[in-house]
């Protein structure tokens, strides 16, 4: 007989079956092969508790642990030195309306964890970072921009000047610049490239826009007017983002409903920018305008694409 278990790790959730006459070492080996991780800790149960994987326990019979039907959480142990990217002192984390960190998660008791908002850097590449991280890509921004550009040029009938609002070559050249925002066109293309539905929840309206609807799996991102963040599931809020679950089957409507509940909480906290009337400033020439239409017009006229919301105080 086999002992069925769910395995939840950095690349999402999968099913695992181990012979009931196997040992804990057999389980460790199977997880290493499935996840390509060499060292990790294992947690299970609710509330979560550690599974003893010390050397003295590896010969224990797996059936003695009563793990049938359990979900094992795999948390990588990274002993390599951490590389800290250079930080631009002029840039601050994206924290619109002063939202507090404890408001960015929602407990999900039925699944023994939390739906969490993972806030992306405010660097004009937030959409690419949000999607790339959900797909488990490392340093995804440049790669995704290049993939989008190639796709546009390879599909001239689908992505013509009429659709893009500009000559395709100029549009692609601009999209390859790291300070150019990505949006609906790029999400639609990335959905095709990676064969995955991208569900984008609008904070202001709580509307869900689905790119690539009908595909087998989905990722969820959150749009707050001029910024994208990532939605994830965490078994414990103390866990690193590397063990987040960020992919779900599209017939899992519960996760989308839960994500909308979190978006509703964020809406109540005014975690969005009203793009119809917000005051915007060009970071290059200090031009000031109102709303996305003015911003788009200024970008067409000047090729400037670095904007920020101006906070108006009494």
Automatic annotation (TrEMBL):
Gene3D superfamilies given in the database record: 3.90.70.80, Phosphatidylinositol 3-kinase Catalytic Subunit, Chain A, domain 1 (3.10.20.90)
Highest taxon of source: Eukaryota
Compartments, record wording: Cytoplasm
GO cellular component, one term: nucleus
GO MF entries: cysteine-type deubiquitinase activity; zinc ion binding
Transport found in the keyword field: no
Keywords: Cytoplasm, Hydrolase, Metal-binding, Protease, Thiol protease, Ubl conjugation pathway, Zinc, Zinc-finger
OTU domain: residues covered: 115-234
E.C. number: 3.4.19.12
Gene Ontology terms describing biological process: endoplasmic reticulum unfolded protein response; ERAD pathway; protein deubiquitination
PROSITE patterns linked: OTU
Catalysed reaction equations from the record: Thiol-dependent hydrolysis of ester, thioester, amide, peptide and isopeptide bonds formed by the C-terminal Gly of ubiquitin (a 76-residue protein attached to proteins as an intracellular targeting signal)
Primary location group: cytoplasm
Listed name of the protein: Ubiquitin thioesterase OTU
Species this chain originates from: Podospora didyma
Organism phylogeny: Eukaryota, Fungi, Dikarya, Ascomycota, Pezizomycotina
């Amino acid at each position: 007989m086999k002992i069925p278990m769910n395995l939840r790790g950095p690349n999402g959730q999968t099913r695992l079956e181990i012979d009931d006459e196997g040992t804990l070492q057999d389980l460790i080996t199977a997880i290493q092969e499935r996840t390509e991780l060499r060292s990790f800790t294992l947690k299970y149960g609710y509330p979560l508790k550690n599974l003893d994987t010390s050397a003295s326990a590896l010969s224990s019979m797996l059936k003695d642990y009563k793990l049938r039907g359990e979900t094992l959480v795999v948390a990588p142990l990274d002993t390599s030195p951490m590389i800290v990217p250079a930080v631009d002192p002029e840039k601050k984390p994206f924290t619109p309306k002063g939202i507090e960190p404890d408001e960015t998660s929602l407990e999900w008791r039925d699944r023994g964890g939390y739906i969490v908002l993972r806030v992306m850097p405010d660097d004009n590449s937030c959409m690419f970072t949000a999607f790339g991280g959900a797909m488990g890509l490392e340093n995804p921004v440049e790669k995704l921009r290049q993939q989008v550009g190639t796709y546009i040029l390879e599909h001239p009938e689908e992505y013509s000047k009429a659709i893009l609002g500009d000559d395709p070559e100029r549009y692609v050249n601009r999209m390859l610049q790291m300070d150019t925002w990505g949006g609906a066109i790029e999400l639609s293309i990335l959905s095709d490239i990676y064969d995955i539905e991208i569900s984008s929840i609008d904070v202001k309206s709580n509307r869900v826009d689905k790119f690539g609807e009908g595909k087998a799996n989905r990722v969820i991102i959150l749009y707050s007017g001029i910024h994208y963040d990532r939605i994830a599931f965490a078994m414990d809020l103390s866990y690193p983002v590397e063990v987040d679950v960020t992919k779900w089957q599209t017939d899992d409507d519960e996760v989308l409903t839960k994500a909308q509940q979190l978006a509703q909480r964020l809406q109540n906290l005014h975690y969005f920018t009203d793009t119809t009337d917000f005051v915007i400033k060009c970071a290059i020439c200090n031009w000031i305008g109102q709303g996305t239409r003015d911003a788009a017009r200024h970008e067409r006229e000047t090729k400037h694409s670095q904007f920020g919301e101006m906070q108006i105080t009494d």
